[in-house]
Amino acid sequence: MSIVRGESDTPQGVLTYRLCEPSEASGPQADSAGAPSGERAGAEIEITGYRGRDMRLAVPAEIDGYAVTRIGRKAFLSNKTLREIRLPDTVAHIDDWAFAYCTNLQKLTLPYRRIGIGQGVFKECARLEQIADGSRTAEAGETSATGAAEDRAVVDTAYLLAAVGSLDAFYLLNPADAGSPAWLARWDDRMGAVMRRSDAEGFSKMLLCGEEDYGSRDNNLDYYMTKRRKEKVRLAMLRLMHDYGLADAVRSGLTAYLLEHIKGAPTEETWQVILEEHGDELAYYEFLTGIGGVTAENFQPMMDDMGQSHTEMKAYLMKYHGERQAGGDAFAAFEL
User: Fold this and answer.
1) Can you identify the CATH homologous superfamily of domain 1-128?
2) What pLDDT does 42 receive?
3) What pLDDT, in 10s, does the model give residues 242-251?
């Protein structure tokens, strides 16, 4: 069969594709009713590229009657506009670097079944928060007919699957197993290894290999260790905020680590991550108060750090302090 290439319009862009033999893009077979016949019978579609300005994109399950079974190598490489991408249930392969350097990608939806996934698929996708199951649509804060407990499992699994990159454990990038007890156990085991790692690990090697420019602040050991602790804080908060299947002992250990780095501690990475990266996200302040990270001793220094910004978050903390710490009306003593 000769190679056939084409384009398919999206609301604000174009997907490019090629027609493949089934042996090249061996995905699940689409319904044969109405499928093309003749020389190209059984052929399948590989998405090879995208150009456009879509923020949300749904890749179609078929194009001109052919099933879309593969996202090709570098298909969406370095895209800066897409925030959400939904892949169809027909997709069976995602090739190398398909979504690499998509720096604004926040959510990818795909089928939770066996999918061939290449290397570096999500390299440098720093904002990727969820890899969601396309057959289950629960969103954070919503409850579907399946029930709140199951919905929480769906949402939590989506966040944990997207965090595999921060664990440097791409063997966990397995949608078919994601959310199972065995997968969660492996995820938590890997997280434990990361949390136990010395904050200085890798610093000497970085210097010897010249991985950072001479004179860069990354060459400073204190700065390097602060970065490592912030990475651990982000990981601990993620797991505690998406705690499906989390063992009590692991929960206690993660909470203890975060409390070791709150405002007023010898190092304050827990507070720094919340203020610098989630400054106006109420869920993070509720989380901080929920683990006991706001105390009578560190409340006022936290207010000082927030200055004239984050007014609503300051109001929340003042209300919490008034109710839990001072036993009175905190608004009487502080100005926003």
Assistant:
1) Ribonuclease Inhibitor (3.80.10.10)
2) 76
3) 999 999 999 9
